[in-house]
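Repro:
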Amino acid sequence: MVETKHERFKFKNKQEFLKKIQELNLDIPFSDDIRILFDRTVIQEKTLPNRSAVHPMEGADGDAEGTPGDLTFRRYLRFAAGGTGLIWFEATANPLLPQPFSRPAAKPPRKSSSYQR
């Protein structure tokens, strides 16, 4: 097994990034042409307007019950308004708990109106 050391992303320009790829002897294609990111794409039966995606990230913006709150919906509405083609949702945490992490063992209440927005 090859052990690798983590390095902080610190590249200031494309040349520094390409140099590091070469130093590490990696095969990572690179293009200055980003038009492909604006093309529609299909995932299963769903057509996305572009290839831009927001990946899951836990926000400590849930309400006291751990369900999505107004701040959660505001965040996702902003992503959508910005033109993101795919928004991947994540866990919602209660910011009032000592450790604001998601509660994977907890099940959301079935009749919570928060999930119906």
